[in-house]
Amino acid sequence: MKQTTNSILMIRPVAFRMNEQTAVNNYYQKVLDGLLPATVNAKAQQEFDAFVEKLTAVDVDVTVVDDTLNPDTPDSIFPNNWISFHENGDVALYPMFAENRRHERREEILDLLEEKGFVIHNIIDYTSAEEDGFFLEGTGSLLLDRANAKAYCALSPRADEELFIEFCEDFDYAPVIFEAFQTVDSERKLIYHTNVMMCLGETFAVICSDCIDDKKERKMVLDNLKENGKEIVLITEAQMNNFAGNMLEVRGANDKRYLVMSAAAHQSLTPKQIEQLEKHAEILSSSLDTIEACGGGSARCMMAEIFLPRN
């Protein structure tokens, strides 16, 4: 199984704003005072377009789908939370915590991918769990080490343990389960998505291990990464707050590896960390300030990797 892909799905926003329904447990979101919603969306579109341009310039195959005005989906720019694509032609659909995010699941996106020559054999649908109040938000909640058949999950209101185990059984992954915290107003609170504090590359892992307060759990997670030969790049909680954990390794022209992150994440890294990462992949960063502030997500969340076979 490959850990990285050249193909990415991205959703261009039409009414991006701070989503009041996700702000209850996403402590990264901020209200940008004095900006009209139209201005926020225009800024987000500019950041989105510049980001896509940087990816396509190095020959990453980006499928861009425009969001629709109806229904209202302020977070549609983060498609990796509702869908994941797998090498055997399976597609997973995930149950979402915020009601207005459930409308992001659009069947015509699958049709479009099939028109592009991607092959979909099977859809595994976990969304009925929403009715019972259980959630698992795609590759936001679960980090897949596809090559080593391991899945990492920091439990939270958006990542239910039983659902995660069910996913691992369905897709043949060994579960690595832990809790990760951040300090909010001097209180330790669960981090809403695993991919904020951790990134898995082919030969490296970026992780804020300080977030894993339980020492045994922390050791268990780090041991799992080391066992699979990953070079571990530790980041601080301050760097994580600049989205330095929210990165994704992709492949460009001639299978060259790129580590994609926001400008804020890139600027927060030390020269030593940059040196460590550049041994594995070339860094590609783009300014996502508005998207990060209002959306509480960054570069990784904006890219849903497509591993599907092609005709």
UniProtKB/TrEMBL annotation:
<protein>
    <recommendedName>
        <fullName>Amidinotransferase</fullName>
    </recommendedName>
</protein>
<dbReference type="InterPro" id="IPR014541">
    <property type="entry name" value="Amdntrnsf_FN0238"/>
</dbReference>
<dbReference type="Pfam" id="PF19420">
    <property type="entry name" value="DDAH_eukar"/>
</dbReference>
